[in-house]
Amino acid sequence: MSRPEQRAQESPHGPPPELTRQQIEALEGMYGNRYLLEPAPDHKFPKSGMAAEEALGLVQEEMVLDGLPARNLATFVTTWMEPEATRLMMECTDKNLIDKDEYPKTSELERRCVSMLADLWHASSAEEATGCSTTGSSEACMLGGLALKWRWRKARQAAGKAADRPNLVMGANVQVCWEKFCRYWDVEARLVPVGKPAGTTHLTAAAAAEHCDENTIGVVAVLGSTFDGAYEPVAEIVAALDTLQADKGWDVPLHVDAASGGFVAPFADPDLVWDFRIPRVASINASGHKYGLVFPGIGWVVWRDASALPDELVFKVDYLGGEMPTFALNFSRPGAQVAAQYYNFLHLGMEGYRRVMVACRENARWLAGTIAELGPFELVSQADGIPAFAFSVRPGTPYSVFDVSEAIRGFGWLIPAYHLPPDLDDVAVLRIVVRDDFSRELGDSLVQDLRRCIDRIDHRVSPDSDQVRTSFHH
User: Fold this and answer.
1) By C-alpha distance, which of 459, 453, 177, 432 is closest to 329?
2) Are 232 and 171 spatial neighbours (Cβ–Cβ below 8 Å)?
3) Cα gap 110→97, rounded to integer Å
4) Confidence band (pLDDT; 50, 70, 90) for 32?
């Protein structure tokens, strides 16, 4: 019961005249929101609503304690776009991307983006590019994996062989979406341990080939590991698979998970050969909402040509007004992110993206070197791939990376701490991602706060301190 209604019922002068909803809302606006004295609805659907401004204020109050996106050094996801791009997204939010008949121009922007990415990644220009937008790289990976499985199964059936034991080879450092793919679509996940040879944090060519057999639907190479930012050696892995085919007759295709690196390498490392210039690369995915510089969520998947995407995975739908092909897992979603991606391509171009990616990497390398000079830290990577790096505490330090991660939160920074994948899981690291909204000035502030953080932890664990040491459990 609202406060005006309660006052009306408790009046000593008899029942008051019936108040309209508009009058009640006016009184509530004058004397205060009823949720100032009551908790906000969280489990049960509210019986009555509230004024739009009150609902807005309540939600804003709930979210005010969220962290500042610019200080979230854990995420690869874009946290800033230009006002023009934000305005464009608001104008396109109500457009359903899947409804290509009703919104043909939005669909055309998607087609243009796919073609531009196919060109950027050196796909064949002899025919129209084959690919689509997705809600993120996770969906794009699922589609890439499905195409690999369907192609493998068709080849096995054509050869009169069993097609009931597919496997996918990848490093143990892959993003969890690949393990999901294998579980959801009944594929054996062959997660190759990392760390051999010593100092290696990702999949190697020899290990990839060693784990393949006639039931391998493909190998996944990561261009920009989420653990330490490293590029996996795509060309070396392909060379090993070429040798494997020559020796065993197994034609194993490669999918490049370029969730982050797909928008970094073409601009910051143009001479690196990792894409469709290599014939064995069948498909590539990338996140538009990472270094594609678009707000979440949007991803992209592109196949080298139409033959790499089995026809069985393409559905033709006509209930929205016209027969349209679709091969995404999701159906209805806003066209805003596609419009924003196209805006970025137009606004930045090759040179603009190059400036952004080079600046991000230079800031990441500067920050990595500065942190290494603080004393208790040593670098595990140095932002030689994507603009991200990992570091650990030196042996003998009386506190862990988890202590540092917990303590730096007190200064408003989010720096994740975690163990590296098998067989390096005895090593724990902190990782920092540098995005385009991370300036050198912001980096100076981070370094100063890390110094203060170290001083506080040193005092807390000092033998002369009577404070009790606590640890962060990850």
Assistant:
1) 177
2) yes
3) 9
4) low
Distance from C-alpha of 80 to C-alpha of 434, rounded to nearest angstrom: 13
What fold, for 84-345? Aspartate Aminotransferase; domain 2 (3.40.640)
23: its two tokens: 């009058």
Closest among 139, 138, 106, 129 to 331, alpha carbons compared: 139
Pick left, alpha or beta for residue 260 (phi over 0 → left; psi -120 to 50 → alpha; otherwise beta). Answer: alpha
- Strands 167-171, 188-192: parallel, antiparallel or unpaired by DSSP? parallel
- State both tokens at 4: 């005006």
CB 190 within 8 A of CB 211: yes
Q: According to the model, what pLDDT value does residue 470 have?
A: 40
**At residue 434, what is the residue type?**
V
**Nearest to 67, CA basis, from 390, 367, 415:** 415
Closest C-alpha among 216, 219, 168 to residue 189: 168
> What one-character DSSP code corresponds to residue 429?
E
Q: What is the pLDDT of residue 323?
A: 56
User: CATH number for the 359-461 domain, one of 3.40.50.300, 3.30.870.10, 3.90.1150.160, 3.40.50.2300?
Assistant: 3.90.1150.160
The model's pTM: 0.88
- Domain ranges, ordered by start, for the chain: 3-63, 84-345, 359-461
Q: Rounded CA gap, 466 and 73, in Å? A: 33
Element at 25 (helix H, strand E): helix 21-31
Token digits of residue 28: 């509530």
Higher pLDDT, 60 or 303: 303
Least Cα distance to 413 among 389, 443, 388, 383 occurs for 443
In this predicted model, what pLDDT tens digit does every residue of 313-325 receive, in sequence order? 988 766 555 555 6
- What's the pLDDT tens digit per position in 264-294? 999 999 999 999 999 999 999 999 999 999 9
